[in-house]
Amino acid sequence: MASFVTAKRSPLFPIILILVLILALFPIYWILVTSFKTPIENILPKPTLFPQKFTLENYQKIISGGPIRNLLNSVFVTAASTLVSLGLGFLAAYALVRYKFPLKLNIVFLVWIILAKMLPPVVLAVPLYDMFAKMKLLNNLWGLILVFQVYTLPYCIWMLFGFVKSLPLEFEEAAEIDGASRFQILRLIALPLVRTGLAATAIFCIIVAWDEFLFTMLFIRSPDLLTLPLVIANYIGEFETLWGQLMGIGMLATLPIIVFARVVYRQMTSAYSLGLK
Amino acid sequence: MKLAGHMRGKTLFFWSIFAPALVVMIWLTVYPMISVLITSFQNYDYISGARSWVGIQNFVDLLKDDLFLASFRNTLVYCLAATAIEVILGIVLALIFYGSFKGKSFFMILVIMPMMLSTMVVSSVWKTLYHYDIGLLNTTLAALGLGRVGWLIDPKLALWSLILVDVWQWTPFAFIVAQAGLSSIPQEIFEAAVVDGATYRQRLFRITLPIMRDQIFLLCLLRTIDTFKIFSKVFALTRGGPGNATETTSFFIYREAFQYFKFGRSSAASMITLAAVVAVSVIYLRKMLKTEEA
């Protein structure tokens, strides 16, 4: 294989590179071509690698049908739950870094949050279902935004805790001496400094919320309130081989997220570097 | 006097910005966990709302229930196999693609695409690829003169087909983490080793992997935690079938509660799952708190 140090690489290198790309991207290519094939072409006993007859029929059906509405639901619920989590998460992270709460609450809370993040969400489903039923929050997008906090809030607090912790104290101390109120310090000094951290956290939050399936399935009844993952799941169940439309909806669910790939790559590369100097 | 007021203001300020998140977390996670704990010792009839105490009966029943045990075993197989394959492949890829080459970051961005897709999209495309009669995998096998494979309908294979989907989706994550770690090891270390005459294998097993030990550990943990929750892939691809070949604990809990309305049993199964999660996380937390203190 390639040497560890020098730029000398085995002649196999480009072949392996292309092979890895094909393995990673072929299913995505398949989503794309399937969405441009006619329904008949999609159930041929021998699948075709390129559409024989390129058609926009599937997309026309999607646009005239419900999925656009479901796309908007997904966008709304994802955006709102991300905003709520960022707001609550930033305030909590700031408090946890800058203030020592009694009874070791700081550490207890952070440990609990990790536990909550590790727990399969279905474990919480029954009591949450009962509670949301009593509060008339079932079959309601606002209820969904709330319940998504189970996933996104621990995530935000944990990530923002790291970002706030790395902020230098000097600016805040200087502002305090100059007579700024605590709220001013928070809003005018800490918030701008942690901006890139907030952006990174937001993107990971968006990916998590966009993908959510379980609680949406349990809490939403009306088809016009469903989010895209549910529409896809229903399609898989009901129309065994309407693959063109299914993949078209898949493209709808993919395009808004895939634009973040670059940021995700950068962020993860810096987050998972070893702390070696 | 002024100082006391200052302290009180400080306390009030930090409590008031912490309170919203604290309340939401208690309301959405602490309270439900307590409720599940209580219900796991009860027989809870949803229609009448009547609850009666049954002690540890739910737990005893579950541990004798073949379906629950099968679901636990399936979850473990899925979790361990997927994690091991992903982490090993990720490290191998990071080693192959170590160092810089033309277009590397573009290559990396393309390669991480699978983990950017939502699970339902991933499941739906694999469902078409796995289709027994007209799926691309089987028609290709048939064209090559090989037999068709019952990817999702053969009880011996279905769980492994799910694992393959997870491996496709999440190996990029292992790759990106491993390569971030690998590329932050200073090159001088390898250069010195080369000068000293270390072979490739020696450099790998004596230098690289030991340096990356903590990171590989973290990677294993993150993937274990995530694969342990597996639900939506099962829902979309097999619904636990064929038979109960792909039934997982999450799916078992869901069915007991929302299809059979056996809340006592589902709560007991939840508590057993929680115990497993806590057991794993203790290892993790210990390590994490240690580095936090250092």
Would you spell out the secondary-structure blueprint of this structure?
The complex is a heterodimer of chains A (277) and B (294).
Chain A: H1 13-35, H2 39-42, H3 57-64, H4 67-98, H5 105-118, H6 125-134, H7 141-147, H8 149-165, H9 170-177, H10 182-193, H11 195-211, H12 214-219, H13 228-238, H14 243-258, H15 261-271
Helix pairs in contact in A: 1-14, 3-14, 4-7, 4-8, 4-11, 5-8, 8-11, 9-10, 13-14
Chain B: H1 2-39, E1 42-44, E2 51-53, H2 57-64, H3 66-96, H4 104-111, H5 113-116, H6 119-130, H7 136-143, H8 158-183, H9 187-195, H10 200-211, H11 213-228, H12 232-237, H13 249-258, H14 263-293
Antiparallel strand pairs in B: 1-2
Fold and architecture overview:
The complex is a heterodimer of chains A (277) and B (294). Chain A is mainly alpha-helical. Chain A has helices at residues 13-35, 39-42, 57-64, 67-98, 105-118, 125-134, 141-147, 149-165, 170-177, 182-193, 195-211, 214-219, 228-238, 243-258, 261-271. The model of chain A has no long low-confidence stretch (mean pLDDT 89). Chain B is mainly α and 294 residues long. Chain B has 14 helices and two strands; from the N terminus they run αββααααααααααααα. Chain B has a two-stranded antiparallel ribbon. In chain B, β1 and β2 form a beta hairpin. In chain B, α1 (2-39) runs antiparallel to α14 and α2 crosses α14 (263-293). Chain B is globular and about 75 Å long. The chains are: A mainly alpha (277), B mainly alpha (294). Chains A and B meet through α1, α4, α5, α6 and α8 of A and α1, α3, α4, α5 and α6 of B.
